[in-house]
Design goal:
By secondary structure, the chain is an alpha/beta fold. It contains 11 helices and 8 strands. An 8-stranded mixed beta sheet has the order 3-2-1-4-5-6-7-8, sandwiched between helices. The longest helix has 13 residues.
């Protein structure tokens, strides 16, 4: 059992909270609207879950999940996160976050920028390459579905990998944060890899029920990935 803090109560944060309590972990979840907005969700999650202020969530456990837009990183309680392992699930979407020169120029990956924004943390990237509704559908699948995990701190990456495995997935070491572009938006290992039907996913991704992807296949896709022209990204 772990104590896991989750900042962000959207589709990804909620999906991970449900898997975490089902796996026996204790969860505290928070968002920018305050604990009162999470009363119904926490009641549904059960006794292993609680709501808290973002500052409280940041200090709740040794592992903190960030499921918030990249543009919101500047509002995170950096001091409370210092020294902790942070699992970042987010991506750079210019249509939402605005254009960011360091990312458009490929000088940094999104994960490297996030690490710069939270310098006192041990940031690890995972769950950013799978759509939210595929997470519960593929957790515990047979064969077991694998997710890439990237980080610069071996101990932190091992901690996150162990947590991801406890939620029902295999993990693949995708290298350091500089290599995390291999499963960023538009890359070969991003979202559509888990689709039951590529055409169906393109037509209506929410209707797609997903299909298991083995660790071996994830390794193959990561190895063959080509870096995306981020400056051309429109979504």
């Amino acid at each position: 059992m772990q104590r896991i803090g989750i900042i962000g109560s959207g589709a990804i944060g909620t999906a991970l909270a449900r898997l975490a309590v089902a796996a026996g972990h204790e969860v505290m979840i928070g968002n920018s609207r305050g604990p009162g907005s999470l009363a119904e969700l926490v009641a549904d999650l059960g006794p292993r879950a609680a709501a808290g202020r973002v500052e409280d969530v940041a200090g709740f456990g040794d592992l903190v999940v960030l499921a918030v837009p990249l543009a919101a990183y500047g509002d995170l309680p950096a001091a409370s996160l210092e020294g902790r392992t942070v699992l970042s699930t987010g991506n750079y979407y210019p249509s939402r976050d605005g254009r960011i020169e360091q990312l458009d120029s490929l000088r940094l990956t999104t994960a490297e920028l996030e690490q710069e924004l939270l310098p006192g943390t041990r940031l690890v990237k995972a769950f950013n390459n799978i759509v939210a509704h595929h997470i519960p559908l593929l957790a515990g699948s047979e064969p077991r579905t694998a997710l890439p995990v990237a980080g610069d701190d071996p101990e932190a990456e091992a901690q996150v990998s162990s947590t991801v495995q406890s939620l029902g997935f295999d993990t693949v070491d995708a290298g350091g944060l500089a290599e995390s572009w291999r499963f960023e938006p538009g890359a070969a290992a991003y979202t559509v890899m888990y689709a039951a039907s590529r055409q169906g996913f393109a037509d209506d991704y929410l209707a797609d029920r997903g299909a298991p992807v083995t660790a071996e296949r994830v390794r193959e896709v990561l190895a063959s990935a080509e870096r995306v022209d981020v400056a051309a990204r429109q979504f």
